[in-house]
Amino acid sequence: MVQKIHPDAPSALAGLLFDGMTIAAGGFGLCGIPETLIQALVDSGTTGITAVSNNAGVDDFGLGKLLRTRQIAKMVSSYVGENKEFERQYLTGELEIEFCPQGTLAERMRAGGAGIPGFYTRTGVGTLIAEGKETKVFDGETFVLERGIVADLAIVKAWKGDPYGNLVFRKSARNFNPMAATCGRVTVAEVEELVAPGELEPDQIHTPGVFVQRLILATHNEKRIEQRTIRKEAQ
Amino acid sequence: MVQKIHPDAPSALAGLLFDGMTIAAGGFGLCGIPETLIQALVDSGTTGITAVSNNAGVDDFGLGKLLRTRQIAKMVSSYVGENKEFERQYLTGELEIEFCPQGTLAERMRAGGAGIPGFYTRTGVGTLIAEGKETKVFDGETFVLERGIVADLAIVKAWKGDPYGNLVFRKSARNFNPMAATCGRVTVAEVEELVAPGELEPDQIHTPGVFVQRLILATHNEKRIEQRTIRKEAQ
Amino acid sequence: MPWTRDEMAALAAAELQDGFYVNLGIGIPTLVANHIAPGIDVTLQSENGMLGLGPFPTEAEVDADIINAGKQTITELDRTSYVSSADSFGMIRGGHIQLSVLGAMEVAENGDLANWMVPGKMVKGPGGAMDLVAGVQRIIVLMDHVDKQGAAKFRRGCTLPLTGANVVDMIITNLAIFERPDRQSAFLLRRLAPGVTAQEVRDLTEAEYEEAFA
Amino acid sequence: MPWTRDEMAALAAAELQDGFYVNLGIGIPTLVANHIAPGIDVTLQSENGMLGLGPFPTEAEVDADIINAGKQTITELDRTSYVSSADSFGMIRGGHIQLSVLGAMEVAENGDLANWMVPGKMVKGPGGAMDLVAGVQRIIVLMDHVDKQGAAKFRRGCTLPLTGANVVDMIITNLAIFERPDRQSAFLLRRLAPGVTAQEVRDLTEAEYEEAFA
């Protein structure tokens, strides 16, 4: 059997990285991001990355780490609000950004992974997002053509994974991870817990192993919280 | 709270049926088909139905029951091989059929449910299936435009369901049921087991309750097997 | 006397019907959840992939893996389910969510909405707002009647880049409520805040509308 | 002496590599699973939504909810996962399955495949075959060299309606193996069944091909 489990992140990324590559990453905000693999990308020094990720992290966490080291040349994202270094690089023209509505981005990643090169959506019709894109009328209503995304590499974070690469995500940390896993020519997963074959219930596997070529036990699980909102105990 | 659980299939279908309507049904072959709701459709006498279903059942089971009573005017299916009454009606022109490759059918139902009126696929390019359909070249390769499907009613079979309409499917009985559930303007589910609120693990719900307007406890669970293939105990 | 933010949220909450699936935007719209009437059972959706949002957690309940689209920590209910973001926007784009309440910089009399960018300022991106206005069945905007400079926010046409074209069904400001029966119709002024006159609203509004008090 | 069905299946099985995800069509292709070499770990996919197919069940193990795309009862393995049919065809259409072995009525020298309908006869539908040939990375056809009337099945062009255009990479018949390095190239005759001559194959084949024995 092909050994999918690697001893660490550098080994799992070995041979996959090159300057100018496209990398899709799971996560929403700082939730469900592949912290261990992002750090390994920082350490790799790979530059000119096009990062397909809903958000850009914060200054010192998430993809923000790769922005600080200027390893990212372009972001394909829906929202990048929480990052000062991002703002600086964007305003000076060092960084290119392709804004994509969140649902369209999720669907573009799913489509790329499912062999669908383009699909039509109502989202963004009549706005800047649709400028320069083809439109088409279905049943009297106008839709815009959006393209599937295939990445050279996808990095995802899961809760549990088995040696076959089967993955289970936890709660809202699932977010973009399943689509990212499908849209990578190669997909590397980091998991909080490695489990034995057969431990994952076949009906409850979110990402089947066919989509995951390599996996590691995550060593960075800080799971930083962006908006710690609390209610009073008494309420 | 809106009561989604109905006492029986006729009550769950009350007010939803009309002649000439489009009904999407889950199931693959005879596996995971909504047996109870199909019987209720037979009893309702609704005619001129366009049935969107991967298969057409067999003569006396599954959608075959609705063919026998000539309630179905048109099938949108990928494979209809196991049904003599189907063949007779088709050859005499009583029944219209729109063949759709299986993966394209699954995706058309998903697309309809997800607000995507059309998508491009490589499947069927250069074949009869693509005739009369628009094509488009992406990156030098030709793809055919396929349309999303929205049905007036979707009927699905699940393993477990809770009062919120959250559904869990069992093994390969999942098949077309999740997509059918999303593509109905109204979706009625029958479940083998009704469970209490909170019994379904939030990470393991296959179809969230937002897609299910009504549900019943299934009373027909024959689960007929089409190809009973057995290996010798000793093997 | 203009309505307070909480009163505006309560007015939006009055639009919720039993059994609705609802997506509440960031900011004032989140307050709507505090004003849902007894007997009205509503399921809140968050576009990152959570259906059935509970209240904020206690200190002990905080879980970094349970957040809403505003990246706030949140809790589960006995109805909660999680889906991928693709499936979550399938709910939204597919028209399965009955109502969304959003903030706005500008709304035009034809229902255009602008709430995502100001040219010349740093653009943070549309997030999920464009998908919500394009897919959710009914869109209610909660906003101040005028901006900080006193300029009308309900206008003939939006001056800012659009989030969606012809997508707004109801506008609740601190001064008035506008509504239209469908997206082919003009907005009607339906209600005034206590002590606010129709003439005052007319003076602070650029959009054309008709008066048809409820 | 022509190869038997089992020998043909074994020849196809020799094309499997360790770690491959494979979809086997109905009929002779299912026999391929019986000939996988020790040390070669292959995961079988069934397009109805099952990844990781086990053997047929014993009488006691039969479960109506566990079937393959041929509607046969089947069993699970410790790697098995179930997905919806949409997600299953996402694997297929997205190119995540390395190899599919299918039967055929006709194959053309340009790689066209016909295996789903005969005009004038009752048409059962394409099922998942069109998706498989359009999406899977490599397509191997297992078929008799000639049809029941003795007519060549490997032809200049298909006479029957196509399942896919330019999709076949390898043809294993009871007489010979044809292969091509890529989909821009012509087929090469790579191997003959024991006792079968190159001339016999030439006589029973309509397609143009080159001889390049392995």
In short:
By secondary structure, chain A is of the alpha/beta class. Chain A has helices at residues 9-13, 35-44, 64-68, 84-91, 102-113, 177-183; strands spanning 22-25, 49-52, 72-77, 96-99, 118-121, 135-138, 141-147, 151-161, 167-168, 184-194, 214-217.
Structure keywords:
heterotetramer, A: about 240 residues, alpha/beta, three-stranded antiparallel β-sheet, 6 helices, about 25% strand, C: about 210 residues, ten-stranded mixed β-sheet, three-stranded mixed β-sheet, about 15% helix
What does the model show?
The complex is a heterotetramer, with two copies of chain A (235 residues) and two copies of chain C (214 residues). Chain A has 235 residues and is an alpha/beta fold. Chain A has helices spanning 9-13, 35-44, 64-68, 84-91, 102-113, 177-183, and strands spanning 22-25, 49-52, 72-77, 96-99, 118-121, 135-138, 141-147, 151-161, 167-168, 184-194, 214-217. In chain A, the strands form two sheets. In chain A, strands 1, 2, 3, 4, 8, 9, 10 and 11 form an eight-stranded mixed β-sheet that branches. A three-stranded antiparallel β-sheet of chain A has the order 5-7-6. In chain A, a hairpin with a 2-residue loop joins strand 6 (135-138) and strand 7. In chain A, helix 5 (102-113) packs across helix 6 (177-183). Chain C is α/β, with parallel strands linked by helices and 214 residues long. Chain C contains four helices and 13 strands. Chain C has helices spanning 5-13, 85-93, 129-135, 198-203; strands at residues 21-24, 43-46, 50-53, 76-82, 99-103, 106-108, 113-114, 138-142, 154-155, 170-172, 176-179, 188-192, 210-211. In chain C, strands 4-3-2-1-5-8-10-11-12-13 form a ten-stranded mixed β-sheet, with helices on both faces. Chain C has a three-stranded mixed β-sheet with strand order 7-6-9, with no helix packed on it. In chain C, 56% of the residues are buried. The mean pLDDT of chain C is 97. The chains are: A alpha/beta (235), C alpha/beta (214). Chains in contact: A-B, A-C, A-D, B-C, B-D. The A-B interface holds A 107, 111, 114-122, 136, 138-139, 141, 143, 147, 168-171, 174, 201-204, 206 and B 107, 111, 114-122, 136, 138-139, 141, 143, 147, 168-171, 174, 201-204.
